[in-house]
Amino acid sequence: MNRLADRVMGPVLAPRDEGYDDERAGWQTARRHRPDLVVGAARPADVQAAVTYASDCGLPVGVQGTGHASAAVAAEGGVLITTARMSAVRLDADAGTAWVAAGTRWDQVIHRTAQAGLAPLSGSAPRVGAVSYTLGGGLALLSRTYGYAADHVRGLDVVTADGHLRHVTQDSGPDLFWALRGGRDNFGVVTGMEIDLMPVTTLYGGTLIFPVEKAAEVFGTYLQWAATVPETMNSSIALISLPDVPAIPEPMRGRHTVHVRIACAAGDPGAGERLVAPLRAIGPMSDTLGELAYAEAGSIYNDPVAPGAAESGTAMLGELDATAVQAILDLAGPHAPVPHVVELRHLGGRLAHLPAVDNAIGNRDARYLLNVVSRLERADFTQIRPAHARLFEALAPWSTGGRFLNFMNGENATTQVRSAYNATDYRRLTGLKAVYDPENIFRLNHNIPPGRGPTRD
Ligand SMILES: Cc1cc2nc3c(=O)[nH]c(=O)nc-3n(C[C@H](O)[C@H](O)[C@H](O)COP(=O)(O)OP(=O)(O)OC[C@H]3O[C@@H](n4cnc5c(N)ncnc54)[C@H](O)[C@@H]3O)c2cc1C
Fold first, then answer.
1. Residue 414 above 80 pLDDT?
2. Does the beta carbon of 237 sit less than 6 angstroms from any atom of ligand 1?
3. 3-class secondary structure for 103-131?
4. Looking at residue 296, what is its pLDDT?
5. Which residues contact 183 (CB under 8 A, 6 or more apart)?
6. What is the sign, positive or negative, of the torsion defined by CA atoms of 277, 278, 282, 288?
7. What is the pLDDT of residues 275-284, one digit of tens each?
8. Among 372, 370, 447, 375, residue whose Cα is nearest residue 413
9. DSSP per residue over 338-349, as a string?
10. How many CA atoms lie within 13 A of 47 on its CB side?
11. Percent of the chain with pLDDT over 90
12. Known PROSITE patterns for this protein (predicted)?
């Protein structure tokens, strides 16, 4: 360990060391990483040193950016590399691209690119780590319009299991480039990425909130509406049990409400306004729709900023009908045994198209992404898990059988990870894993085990 500390600019901490708890802490507090060593990488050479050390000692390696998914697969033992110190954005406004370092949050990227009238394909929560979000797919606010964030990556700098720092693109290292965009942390630690930016400064968006008494009408109207809207319209619908706390205004405090979130990239705000008219006609109790700067788009979902503990699960769904809606209302509405957020993000549009440079993202035929979250402050695992299981079971007839890696939480069985990919892509991924990480040192994650497959490019 001393030798490693000599080679690393950032801290190298064992459980007995002061600072260990702060360094391993992530945004999610439900499950904590407990590595043998945590390495606070300050530069790519630190990542190389940590990976080489772990590989020499036969230890597994995990990575943490902001820790928004640290509850997903918590590291027990091994070496955890934290990247928060590696935060940087280099903008090339003429090319419409940005290079983003491993530990950078989306709000830092947005702040930089907005000055040039450009926006990244960031998601609902601006404080999520840009690199891991993108490697896991990256379902963006504007993904129906532009595709997954992973579809717009030009190049990646990655430290592979052999400790080498490689720059991979479609022209140099196409297999690894393909696998990393979707395979996330199974093939190495990405130290930086070059991404395309979109010519977006403002959008038409916000939230419509309805009382639960109108839930059946709102869900029914929304599903019919979503089937007809152009790909400039991005939206989701969520049934939310709001906590009884002063931060929530009356009359919503402590109640179940239905939230329709809108992010329309039509250019003309009038076009967005015309499109949402059927939803507005139902009579929301709160309406924040209007033109807003992309830099303010985090207000649409208003995701929690403070660290917290939650249990969640996900499934990809096909077209939904009134029976599916009734199942959601019965199992997650006011009579549910635990408070839920049940969200359906509308897919399709550009998400259904293969990108110009293919990647490992699967399940492009799904129509909705189901995300179910319950906060552990309001119920415990023994109450939440069976409640979520009942909901997923009830919605099984509408499931495509797929999952979305970025929203997978404790689901780490091989069958669950496999469901994030198409069958042939999964075989290719296990083959490439055998080439680039044959000892599976990158296994403190939603793991793709090494299989038999092609030789490296
Ligand atoms: C409130 C909230 C809102 C969200 N909204 C969206 C959304 O709109 N769209 C969407 O697609 N996702 C969304 N997510 C999911 C989020 O994108 C993923 O959880 C993402 O992986 C978080 O990255 P992180 O760095 O913040 O988390 P971390 O917990 O630090 O990392 C998550 C995973 O990425 C891996 N990883 C981290 N850094 C690297 C690296 N440099 N190289 C390789 N692997 C790495 C880690 O091994 C870990 O498995 C949301 C999550 C939350 C909690």
1. no
2. no
3. CCEHHHHHHHHHCCCCECCCCCCCCCEHH
4. 96
5. 135, 360, 429, 432, 433, 448
6. negative
7. 999 999 999 9
8. 447
9. S--EEEEEE--G
10. 28
11. 84
12. FAD_PCMH (PS51387), OX2_COVAL_FAD (PS00862)
What is the CATH number that goes with domain 2-82? 3.30.43.10
Taking CA atoms only, the protein residue closest to ligand 1 atom 7 is 123
Q: Tokens 């942390």 label which residue?
A: 185
Which of the listed residues 406, 412, 446 should we mutate to test ligand 1's pocket, taking the one with most ligand atoms within 8 A of CB?
A: 406
Our mutation pick for probing the ligand 1 site, out of 38, 46, 68, 312, counting the most ligand atoms within 8 A of Cβ, is 68
Q: Does 301 have pLDDT greater than 80?
A: yes
Residue 445: pLDDT band by 50, 70, 90 thresholds?
Answer: very high
- Provide CATH code, domain 202-407: 3.40.462.20
- CATH hierarchy code of domain 89-199: 3.30.465.10
pLDDT digits (tens, 9 = 90+) for 97-111: 999 999 999 999 999
Query: Which residue's structure tokens are 């198409």?
Result: 422
The pair of three-digit structure tokens given for residue 100, joined into one six-digit string: 């983003």
Q: Check residue 29 and give its pLDDT.
A: 86
Domain ranges in the chain are 2-82, 89-199, 202-407
